[in-house]
User: What shape does this take?
Amino acid sequence: RCLTMSFFRASQKWSAFSHKKWSYYLHDEYALAQLFLEMRYPEFPHLQLVVQNCLLYLPPVQKNLWSYLVLWVYGGVVADVNSMPDNFHADTLQKDDDAIFIFDVANQRMNTTFMATSPKHPVMFYAIQHSLLRILTADDISSSDLVYQTGPEALQKALEQFSGEEGQDWSGGSLPRTVKGAAQKDRSAKVISSEEKYASPIFISPKGIMKEFGKMGIEVDVIQPLRGPAGGCFSQMHANLDKAIGGGHNNKNP
Assistant: This one.
């Protein structure tokens, strides 16, 4: 994929860490589809069914789910393409850091544009499950609420489930804070403030983001991000099933 100069400069800053025994990957649509559809996840039995039937027109929701999944499988750091390292360096992560998440102080919610975990971290397991639940039970999968529900909300609920602290308030002077797993005592997660500025956005305005992606031939609408058939995920699955069996559920032939 050809990058604009702004995104290329950011990728160069991220890839500069590779000399510190890091590997840097820029994932495109092919890599996203490969992770979703070419691997098997018995721990997430509904994942591929949801991806194939309900996320075709929902790139922002795909991105949220993919971010959790790639960290679940491989671990490492996931950073949005519209971000560059700020106060994050190759030695920022220590050997005893099991997971690091960022609380967005300005918007009072978790931030999913930068996450770091070790492989198979329980928070990612819970985040994937909460996201799938939201998608499957949404009355209308074309609602923009789904982007938030599978993003900051899913991560917040995953952290709550992991720590056993429902309704945890991450704001105020409580950050940074490390929580231990309620059921997984050997696992931990650190939540830091966005004021630490591990990574900063390249473009802030929606129009700026859309214009930059447009230069790469990618249509991104961050103002009205979801474009797809209205209705729930289950109805979409049923519609696709009708097409697959050639005529719908009224077909009486065996």
The mean pLDDT is 85. DSSP finds nine helices and seven strands in the chain.
